[in-house]
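QA checklist item 7 of 12: single-chain prediction sanity check.
[x] sequence parsed
[x] length recorded as 532
[x] structure emitted
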Amino acid sequence: MGNDNSTLNNALSPFTNASRARSTSTTDMRRNRGSRSVETERRRVDSDPHGMLEALALENSDDGIDDPPPRLSLDHRQTRPRRNPSIDLDAKPRKSLDGDRGTAKPALKKTSSLQTPPSQAPVNVKTSRYSHIEQRVGVAVIGLEHRMISLLALLLSEHGGLIEVLALCDESSEAIQSAREELWQYGSSLEVSKDYSDFRKVLQIPGIEWVLIGSKSVDHRDQCIESLKLRKNVFCTSPVGITVKACEEIRRASLNSTNIFISELTLRNSLFFHKISDVISTGKLGKLVSIEASHLMSPSQGSYAMGTWHRFNSQAGPFILDRCTDDIDAINYIVGSLPTRVAAFGGLCSFIPENKPTNPKDQQLYNSDKLDADVFAEKDIDDNVVVILEYRDNVRVSYHANANSAIPTRKLLICGVKGALEADFITGQITFQSIHHGASPIVSYIHGKGTYGAEIATMSELASIMEKGTSDRHASLSDAFSAAIVCLAINRARNDKSIINLEPYWKSNGLGGFHKDTPTTKEETNQRQSPK
């Protein structure tokens, strides 16, 4: 057991197991964190009797992000070197839960002009790492929803020396104005950009290599397809499309293009999720048997979808697609195959007029400056769903999402024939228990900034692709397509009150194996190059 457990411990590094945390003495803790009053120490011991959180704080200082897994290339249709043709693009990509897409950075206080407020200094954009770049990557941003502004701010702050924003595009001039006021501090990357309301005009601008699409989900289809036709590389927020037809058309356009298409499925990029994957890869769980997953949102988290354009199916697609695509993508990643059957139940139960709080303090739980409507007003999306899925390799999965939970929860319980793993994204705790007699549980902690560190990692992956054409773990076209199709099948099962067979979807799109986008036969190549 000792030698076997060393592999698991390496997978959990830099986590600290329970026995190690319990053996940490109070004296050692004080030496690392400096002097602390007796009363403060007593309160710490009461709340953390085994010293696990203290050990986490000592080993995971700063942002909790350590060295990523070994670098892997995306498949050949997702990667194309921009400046380094010697990079290997044929390496097999990593297999592919949803950051709170409604959660964006708080907007800066609006000013009367777009000039730098005199009381503040611009952010020190990190440009030194790209001092070797002779010409910045030309970027256009289409759709300035809150999510895109949040991601763009991270990209500019960490990788501003790599890119030059040539255009900001949104059908709303107020959205462009708000974006400029929020992003003024990254002026060196935005100083030459111009404003547009028509994305087609943006795509005609010389020098644009990448298009970042963060518009309403219903607009993704036209914007993605047109960008690919004009040989632009595309980064698109999730979901990729709101109907099966739209998803298939975007995928077809990408497969017929030599340019890169990647999707924002951020949760897979969090270090926490990759530690889960690393533990599974040790084989200590054995063959996977069943998974229980949950995403229970707080009222403030859930209210974003209920008080904005996300509340309408015609704009955002169904609730399971709009709010939970990252979760489904993560489950696909863990299982390593595609679901073959799905059943679901759901409805709109919480965010309805009769449940509107009368107490002003309770009403504050649902308020946000990002809302444009009463969260209890008219809408046609669900606010809760329960799903059962069966995968090709007979792994069974249950999934529960709720947009109004008094106890916010985001967990995974993964059961194998040799052991089980429980992961709590909110507390940062991973617990592994072997099924062998006398085995002790291994408990570990890790945290990251933002949505479990996922947004920062996602933008770093995007920058890597822009510069080198390679990425560790970004979501490929097939990842985004598969997750969206599963979500849409879930919604159909919920509406029809039936079990949906997914195999026809996979076979009609050439996904005979897991995420198989690379043609393997001449007939398959010809079929994919011919429009359906």
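[x] summary fact logged: Confidence is low (pLDDT under 50) at residues 14-124, 514-532.
[ ] second reviewer sign-off
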